[in-house]
Design goal:
Layout (H helix, E strand, L loop, with lengths): L4 H20 L3 H22 L9 H6 L9 H11 L20 H24 L1
Helix pairs in contact: 1-2, 1-5, 2-5, 4-5
């Protein structure tokens, strides 16, 4: 069976581009969601590159589950935790109001910045392995 790490990482890059497009269009909830998806897919790509499967959607946990020789900075895990806490997908994610009413430029810029950092970390480690 072929290693699909490259496919997962390429999709992560594309998801990050979608996040940026959504931010520019003022769809900040979609920007946050796409940024989280980009980070998730990138970390799963690294797991695959290292010969292991990864399950779940929590980026912070996926980072923690990487082998010990992949030294994940604490700051990166904390950034992943922020991404994991953007409940942007469903109208009942918040006590009231649609998701788009809860996210603005500040949140989408932060989400994209953190996703970029995670993709850069993954890109570096995929090149080394």
């Amino acid at each position: 069976m072929p290693n699909r790490a490259r496919d997962w990482f390429q999709q992560a890059v594309r998801d990050l581009e979608q996040a940026e497009d959504s931010r520019h269009a003022g769809r900040h909830e979609w920007a946050c969601f796409a940024a989280q998806q980009a980070a998730e897919k990138a970390v799963k790509a690294l797991h695959l590159r290292l010969g292991q499967e990864a399950w779940g959607q929590m980026v912070a946990r996926l980072l923690r589950e990487l082998p010990e020789h992949v030294a994940v900075p604490t700051e990166l895990i904390e950034q992943a935790q922020v991404l994991d806490n953007f409940p942007t997908r469903y109208p009942n994610s918040h006590p009231e109001g649609a998701p788009f009413e809860h996210y603005g430029l500040l949140q989408s810029e932060e989400a994209i910045r953190y996703a970029r950092a995670i993709l850069a970390f993954v890109r570096l480690h995929m090149a080394q392995s």
